[in-house]
Amino acid sequence: MKYVVILAMFGAAAFAADEPKKALTKKEVGKMMKDVHKGAKSPHVNVDAELKKDEPDWDVIAKGAKSFNEMSAAFARVDLGYSSPAKYNAAAKALTKAAGDKDKKAATEAVAAMNKSCSSCHSYGGAGGALK
Fold it and tell me: Which of 22, 44, 58, 118 has its CA 20 to 30 A from that of 32?
């Protein structure tokens, strides 16, 4: 009986993992974008600050990269309708790899690419509108 319960729990967990995530609104994505990129304690500001140091804290950069990848996942759950977040997504993945490799040059390039990707969406009035 004990094994049946364990198998049932495992099966339910596997089934739940396959459920599609609910779609997001542009407003929800805009709020998430603001949380990740704006403010003195945002992941974007923290990662930028670390990359200016001679010896960056790679845990801070990895945590920021996780936030950027969560942002990438959110893009897949909203109809942007005017632009592709592919460059942002690629930069977020590159930052994750660079953080794992503790490669400051690659991390700096990934953040620069991510920053550059912003205009490909926001120039068209994206989720947060025009960049300010």
Answer: 58
pLDDT, tens digit (0-9, with 9 covering 90-100), for 25-46: 888 988 999 999 999 999 999 9
- For the chain, the domains span 23-122
Q: Which long-range contacts (CB under 8 A, 24 or more apart) does 85-89 make?
A: 85/117, 85/121, 87/113, 87/114, 87/116, 87/117, 87/120, 88/114, 88/117, 88/118, 88/121
Scanning the structure block, which residue is given the tokens 């390039």?
109
Cβ-based burial of 99 (10 A; exposed 0-12, middle 13-18, buried ≥19): buried
Is the pLDDT assigned to residue 130 strictly greater than 80?
A: no
